[in-house]
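For reference, the entry.
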Amino acid sequence: MFPSYLRLVCATNRDIFFVYFFLGLVIVAPSNILRYYFIQTHNISPADLAFYGGIIAFPWSIKAVYGMLSDRLRVFLNRRLQIAFGFACSGLFWSILGFDSSSVFRVVFFCTFSSFFLACSDVVLDAIMVERISKTQNTGRIQSIAWASRSFGSLVGCIFGFSFTFHRNRFSFIALFCMLGSFFGLHINENFNQNTSTMVLRAFCTFLYNKTILLFVLLLFVYGYEPSDGTIVEYMMIKKFDVESSVFAIADMISYVTIILASMFFDAFLRQANIVHLILSTNIVAIALIVFRNFIITDRIVMESDVFLYANCFIGAFVGQIAFLPFAIVAAKLCPKSLEGTVYAFFMAVTNFSGIVSRELSGLFTNVYNIKNTINFRTQDMDSFYLLCILLDFIGLIVILCYIKTFTLDSTFRNKTTAHKETELDSSNSDLELLPSELESFEHTEVELPTIQTDSEI
């Protein structure tokens, strides 16, 4: 038996949970297919793999632009139609690849455009979720279940990716899943606000004109900017340890099942936890995991490659999800009314941009340390790369720990009831700088931020 509050949340939000399921499915389904397409079929090096991955992921780093367009288009085109259109266009590009995928350039080109339209749908879906979060007192609960739904879709995508890695119609099946996402997107319930402002850009700039918001943006960036060894691990697993696609598929499934479990664990036990303790503990485990991966790659520790991959995915996914959810919850709480799509998309775009920076730095430093498309490398070069990753990890962690205390996971700021009533701080945060956590709906061209102190402006 599920608790009554959980049944209520699922019943009132199942429309967006279904769409999150298909979003996770169509994002992850191509991953195993493209992994072997690039590495096995075309012998792409780790540096080039990181470069192509950065190109395909780039549309996710400019989500704030889609958010502003979405908030303006909402006057003429409701959000559920925007979501359905994005899924449909993504499916169109996958269907084109279904006819011819012989060229690496063609695959990267169409995958990038498909990624663009999926990112647009993701922005609008997040905006609906944030709007609903603002009407509930259950901090993080809707987000946790939404992430779990998306992870379950990712799990199904892993199964598909393994089953159809080398199937000639694999891209056409992905296009079909996009069409199903478009269908469910059309059935989202949406309450349209006629007072939504058309002065989106001005309102967004006003919102950003605050050093506390910019501080949070900095924290989101340093959270994931450091170079990653992901492409090195994938390349070595395939080329050096001869790992089959089925092992990668199982590892991916373990990751997404773990994300679901981590989301449930966070919802049950950590929603009121100290954010500093969460970030510090998860980062210590993550850094230890980096060292462990180095020992495996350099043969200092010998263990079965599939066992290593499963353990790495389980631990990495669990601590990664626990570390990220506090940032996602704070981001949702900072979104002003009528700008949910723009602001939340901007925050998530910053994390995606930091991920792209991480990929490109990975490609740069693998070339610098001569870790290219070969399994023969100098241990000293590999150690230098990993030491650099750990050093940048520590720098990011220090910056986050120094400034994250400004933000909490509970209801940090009370909702403002009128345009002239100041937001009151929670007693435990009375000494902190005020944040624009809840702005009034923007009407006409007037945008007020009465809860922001004068000395907080840049």
About this structure: The chain has a mean pLDDT of 80.
